[in-house]
Amino acid sequence: MAGKTQEVREELKLVLSGKTKDALWPPLVYAILQSRMGILPAALAAMAGSLATAVYRRMKGEKTLYAFTGFLGIALASGLAYYNQNASNFYLPGIVSGGVITVVSLFSLLLGKPLAAWTSHLTRGWPTSWYWRKDVKPAYTNVTISWTVLFAVRLSLQLYFYLRNDVANLTVVNTILGLPATIGVLVLSYLYGIWKLKVLGGPSVREHVENLPKPWTGQTRGF
User: Where along the chain do its domains lie?
Assistant: First the structure.
């Protein structure tokens, strides 16, 4: 049990400290600066940071998707803030970013290329051909469905309270369905994903890359 707990902790650290943070810090910077500098200066500072991150990733030959997601979220949020300037605008960057990722998650399911697989690919660098195997993809599809439900519920509540300028309830929603819920879902996703891969009986990433014949050991670490 202690071994599995340590494994989950290490995998969670890998996901949260990877390139996904490129999309997480711009809304936070914008929210902090907006109350001190105003909408436009805060947006320009956060967007400049996102572009700098994208350039840095490109120079290192790494993916820039998350950096541009952060940039897009700030651009949309700052634009909307001009038309609806109220106290709840503090939460607008997170709402816009949440809306974008909800749509992306839903479309990834409709296209048969689940977001959970892309997130894992960008974080770990595993070949996409492994994720799309019939004995692998269902695990990532099911996890993406759970993500989409969480994203949609959170976005619906956020929009409802935002349009009512109900800062108190908006704060409650962001507190409960924010980072704590995200971490909880990531942990459950990992545990379920490893179990589902075992049930599906597909090869591990290494076995797939090396085109090894059955019987396969399967993916026992990392999802």
Answer: 2-209
